[in-house]
């Protein structure tokens, strides 16, 4: 028979009859919520300008808790970027898959992109992929690979749209879905930068309309 250790026996004896057992210290944070707060901060101020104290204040977690949950600042940035990509993909995947006429499909994609880029309590935040491409991806091979993967994924999604549109006769026989996809992606990147710089939505929508007209006249 396994005997209780002395400290366990003593604690059991000291506990009042019927008293609930003590539980471990509960977490004072929700990891998913904390990651969302970190993402918001990184999107607003970038990696270099965001200190651990800033992250601690934004998430409500002290430094040891942050490290225990997410790793160092670089690891937290990577986790935040993955979260951003997952959320952006969730908002656009159904639109890319939908069998709408290509003009309507493009209009919906760009409208959703503008919703993302112009969001933010303290002003437009643009695209986190574009922001990361011009900063952390320059010197960090792992982050650069993640950004390149995101860019390639977007090109492929647009190529699928244009390839299907060509099969349905919405584009001329000479249209190249891959070239059109790169133009469509370039338009995404352009409005992302302009959105972060404060360009009004009406002007961004005019750029989108002009780009769609050019792509569909090929």
Mean pLDDT: 89
Q: Give the ordered list of helices and strands.
A: HHHHHHHHHHH
Question: Fraction of residues in helices?
Answer: over 70%
Radius of gyration: 25 Å
What does this 3D model show about the protein?
The chain has eleven helices and no strands. It has 218 residues and is an all-alpha fold.
Key terms:
11 helices, 218 residues, single chain, mainly alpha
Short recap of the structure:
With 218 residues, this protein is mostly helical.
Element layout with pairings:
Blueprint: H1 6-14, H2 31-45, H3 52-59, H4 63-70, H5 73-97, H6 102-117, H7 128-133, H8 136-139, H9 141-167, H10 177-196, H11 201-216
Helix pairs in contact: 2-3, 2-5, 5-6, 5-9, 6-10, 6-11, 9-10, 10-11
């Amino acid at each position: 028979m396994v005997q209780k250790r002395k400290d366990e026996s003593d604690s059991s004896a000291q506990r009042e009859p019927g008293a609930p057992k003590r539980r471990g210290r509960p977490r004072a944070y929700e990891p998913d919520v904390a990651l969302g707060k970190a993402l918001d901060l990184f999107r607003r101020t970038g990696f270099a300008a965001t200190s651990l104290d800033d992250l601690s204040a934004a998430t409500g977690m002290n430094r040891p808790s942050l490290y225990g949950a997410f790793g160092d600042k670089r690891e937290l940035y990577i986790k935040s970027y993955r979260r951003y990509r997952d959320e952006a993909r969730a908002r656009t995947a159904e639109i890319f898959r939908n069998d709408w006429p290509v003009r309507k499909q493009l209009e919906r994609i760009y409208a959703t992109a503008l919703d993302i880029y112009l969001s933010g309590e303290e002003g437009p935040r643009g695209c986190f992929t574009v922001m990361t491409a011009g900063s952390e991806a320059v010197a960090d091979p792992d982050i650069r690979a993640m950004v390149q993967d995101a860019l390639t994924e977007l090109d492929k999604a647009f190529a699928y749209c244009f390839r299907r549109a060509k099969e349905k006769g919405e584009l001329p026989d000479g249209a190249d879905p891959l070239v059109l996809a790169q133009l469509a992606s370039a338009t995404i990147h352009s409005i992302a930068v302009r959105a972060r710089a404060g360009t009004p939505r009406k002007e961004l929508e005019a750029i989108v309309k002009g780009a769609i007209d050019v792509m569909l006249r090929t």
